[in-house]
Amino acid sequence: MSIILLVEDNEMNRDMLTRRLERKGYDVLIAVDGDEASRLIESASFDLVLMDINLPGKDGYQLTRELKSNPRTAKVPVIALTAHAMVGDREKSIAAGCDEYDTKPVDLPRLLGKIQALLGRTDPPA
pTM (2 decimals)? Predict the structure, then answer.
């Protein structure tokens, strides 16, 4: 079973994504801000990160650079999840180290496809 670290400060988004991901068979760890995410990056094990970009404290760009510079988590795929959908936002996320980019509001089938691709799955989770 894959573990997803969900870094999201918006309670409604966090709850909705957690429920939907758990229904698809994923375990979900939650960080509500940059400081909590930093602690989890240092201490927890996870297979993929859904990274909100706009966070209190450290933003998603800083956290992604931190995650990718840590030898223990450098290869963990990161999907930027953001309401930022302007020209250049995808490129900025990729430049910070994100492996993929998706916009809010979340289109769950599209997001699940990206998660499965990054985790190397060809079949949907149970």
Answer: 0.93
